[in-house]
Specification:
The protein is of the alpha+beta class. The protein contains three helices and ten strands. Bound molecules: coenzyme A.
Length: 178
């Protein structure tokens, strides 16, 4: 039951109390607007978006963080992907509003959502991102796992959600379904 857990709250140092909840259909366009604000123009031209086109984000894991007035402070989404016959979660995009960055909301979104992944049956998660940031969440470079070009292989990172879940997994990351 993806939506069964109680809402999680997160309090920033000098700012609002945030409620972290699974993303709902009604959140969709606001999350898109936040991503447009936080990422460079043309974000959807990135090759990782070809893995997402036409496939809905993973319900129950994708989250929004809203303050007590309902203002969106951050969001994280996940998509399902495949490497050969093996399933993985693709984490991202994750973004925090520029006026709310650096106070732990990104960490709260990542940790809360990842904490739900294993209980829902996911064994491994990957992303394309900055190793210095994601290293603090246990992500390491995935040698041998190839994202669609042009992706810098140094930015292809993964974390096992069950022991050894990335061991021996090599190959191209593909769409969940074609
Ligand atoms: C990345 C992002 C989601 C982090 O959210 P946040 O709420 O600011 O993150 P937190 O407060 O949990 O963590 C902040 C820490 O991460 C560090 N950090 C943020 N982005 C980083 C990056 N790209 N590389 C290395 N460190 C980074 C900050 O310097 C800060 O370090 P400190 O704890 O030592 O002070 C947010 O900065 C953001 O939306 N950025 C624009 C969109 C983006 O780049 N998303 C990630 C795509 S890979």
């Amino acid at each position: 039951m993806p939506h069964a857990r109680a809402n999680v709250t997160f309090s920033q140092k000098d700012h609002a109390l945030y409620h972290l909840t699974p993303e709902k259909d009604a959140d969709y366009w606001e999350v898109e607007a936040l991503y447009d604000l936080c990422f460079a123009p043309g974000r959807e031209a990135l090759s990782s978006y070809r893995l997402r086109d036409g496939i809905p984000p993973v319900a129950g894991l994708s989250h929004v963080a809203r303050d007590a007035e309902g203002i969106l402070g951050g969001a994280i989404r996940y998509w399902p992907v495949r490497i050969g016959l093996v399933e993985a979660l693709l984490l991202g995009p994750v973004a925090v509003h520029p006026t709310r960055q650096g106070e732990g909301l990104g960490r709260a979104l990542i940790e809360e959502s990842l904490g739900r992944a294993a209980p829902e049956g996911w064994n491994r998660v990957m992303l394309v991102g900055d190793a210095p940031y994601y290293g603090r969440f246990g992500f390491v470079k995935l040698a041998g796992v190839k994202m669609p070009p042009p992706t810098n292989p140094e930015r292809v990172l993964g974390r096992a959600l069950s022991e050894g879940a990335w061991e021996g997994i090599r190959g191209e990351v593909r769409r969940w379904r074609d």
